[in-house]
Amino acid sequence: LEHGDTLVVRPCVPDTWPQFRVSWVLPGGGRTRWEITVRSPDHCSEGVTAAVADGRPVAVEGGAVRVPVVRDGGLHRLEVTLGRVG
Question: What Å distances lie between residue 31 and 21, 27, 28, 52, 71, CA to CA?
Answer without folding.
Answer: 19, 9, 9, 21, 8
